[in-house]
Amino acid sequence: MHIVVHKAKCQGHARCWAQAPNIFKLDDEGYVLPGDINVAQEDELLASRAVRSCPESALEIDRTSAARFEPAEMQPRAGEA
Amino acid sequence: MALNPVPDHVPPEMVGDFSLFTSPGMLPTPDGDPQAATACVHAGPPIFYSPFNTRDGRGTWVITRATDQRRVLQDADSFSSHRSIFASALGENWPMIPLELDPPAHGVFRSLLNPLLSPKRVTALEPAVRERAIALIDSIAASGTSCDVMQDFAFPFAVSIFLRLLGLPDHRLHTFVGWANDLLHGDDVKRPAAARTILAFIDELAAMRREEPVDDFMTFIVQAQVEGRRLTDEEVRGIGVLVFVAGLDTVAAAIGFDLAFLARHPKEQELLRSEPNRIVLAAEELLRAYPTVQIIRVARKDIDFEGAPIRKGDYVSCATMIANRDSAEFECPDTIDLMREDNRHAAFGYGPHRCLGSHLARREIVIGLEEWLARLPAFRIKEGTAPIAYGGHVFGIENLIVDWS
Ligand code: SF4
């Protein structure tokens, strides 16, 4: 999963960090660090909860890029099929 | 009042019969639920004009939907936050900082103050907060099977944490609470008198810290630099007054509403007592259900907003309790579900002015509930008593007598 960070919208509520401190990093003032985030599969539930709790809608789950990655990963490996 | 309560540019059909000060459930009411009483506005339009919706009897536009409140509060170019709420009680006109500064000046002070109340900083304060909660609750437990949550716990807890932050001694706690009470809830005589007292106190404190610096908030402020210069006296005052006023009764009110809810809901109380790791999430739902402030902005220009002709200088109200009961934002908003996950509540506002103390407030609420539930048995509202709750500019609860005999 890929999360788009709209840094300009972040107002430092730190809801994302409270839910998933390992995924969302804050600067010294308490605002989310810039730069989009790739989330490992086992962290997806936590990350999407965090996205849904941002009051400013500053975080967005990018489904299109997920779709871009998946087909490649789903290529049959040698020996399969 | 000399003012025409409804300005000429407001179409009569946009005037709504609702006010956070005068509607049913807003005046002090035994067993009242003022936050729930605001939910009636959702049956109406997204915006209406309420003729008396401030302490001084002025009208405001009322924004009823969470997404529209977000739009207003994020748009500082159109909606100013400068109202001189405090200074106007003295017939003066200077901003509390950073609340009443608009961007870009706002950002300069916000950056100065943010690190003092950042999540990281609050984590460092946590042991002291917990120690204070434990001391108060243990002494309550030792002294009987009943207490007034507001007097014996919520106020002394919240206020002493914040006095410690400011570097002020605990023994003046009752004096400070008295000042805040007069300022926030007093009449036309008490309010300006309290404002003058607080101002003199802040000025005196600043002067003392200039002379003899110690390791505290006010010393930091008088020594701080913005844009390569020291702060002016008026800026120091603007920050001091805001921190003093904002820290005094909001967290206490929140803890009061939360414990009142738990006193009335034994099942929920038991759930949190037996599974304390749920308290963090539950506290967010309680913040959604029982927020305490009405946020007001002043239009900086003429704007048509969802069909309403807002004119320059009009007040626009974003009541957090109204946003938090919006069914477009929250599923079953009138149900208090301590396990609710999707919870972008507005208790701390939206936009650049998002409550600077929100991280500390949250931790105080969570720690207060954790220690209360860990140290006291099942409690309920004491028979024959009824907590008095009220609306207004800051919602609150006057007394909360609970019993665990
Ligand atoms: S929850 Fe949203 S506003 Fe808050 S720190 Fe995270 S991204 Fe920023």
Pair with the most extensive interface? A-B, 20 and 25 residues
Structural class, from helix and strand content of chain A? Answer: alpha+beta
Total number of strands of chain B: 15
Number of DSSP helical runs of chain B: 14
Average pLDDT confidence of chain A is 83
List the helices and strands and how they pair.
The complex is a heterodimer of chains A (81) and B (405).
Chain A: E1 2-5, H1 15-19, E2 37-38, H2 44-52, E3 59-62, H3 63-73
Antiparallel strand pairs in A: 1-2, 1-3
Chain B: E1 29-30, H1 34-37, E2 47-50, E3 60-63, H2 66-74, E4 79-80, H3 85-88, H4 105-113, H5 119-142, E5 146-148, H6 149-166, H7 173-185, H8 190-211, H9 217-223, E6 225-226, E7 229-230, H10 233-264, H11 266-274, H12 279-289, E8 294-299, E9 303-305, E10 308-310, E11 315-319, H13 320-323, H14 358-375, E12 380-381, E13 388-390, E14 396-397, E15 401-403
Parallel strand pairs in B: 3-11
Antiparallel strand pairs in B: 1-13, 2-3, 4-8, 5-15, 6-7, 8-11, 9-10, 12-15, 13-14
Helix pairs in contact in B: 5-6, 5-14, 6-10, 7-8, 8-9, 8-10, 10-14, 12-14
Bound molecules: iron/sulfur cluster.
What features would you describe in this structure?
The complex is a heterodimer of chains A (81) and B (405). Chain A is of the alpha+beta class. Chain A is 31% helix and 12% strand. A 3-stranded antiparallel beta sheet of chain A has the order 2-1-3. Chain A is globular, with a radius of gyration of 15 Å. The two termini of chain A are 26 Å apart. Chain B is α+β, with helices and mostly antiparallel strands and 405 residues long. Chain B is built from 14 helices and 15 strands. A 5-stranded mixed beta sheet of chain B has the order 2-3-11-8-4. In chain B, strands 1-13-14 form a 3-stranded antiparallel beta sheet. Chain B starts with 28 loop residues before the first strand and ends with a strand. The mean pLDDT of chain B is 93. The A-B interface holds A 9, 11-15, 17-18, 26, 28-31, 49, 52-57 and B 70, 74, 110-111, 114-115, 117-120, 280, 284, 341-346, 348, 350-352, 354, 358-359.
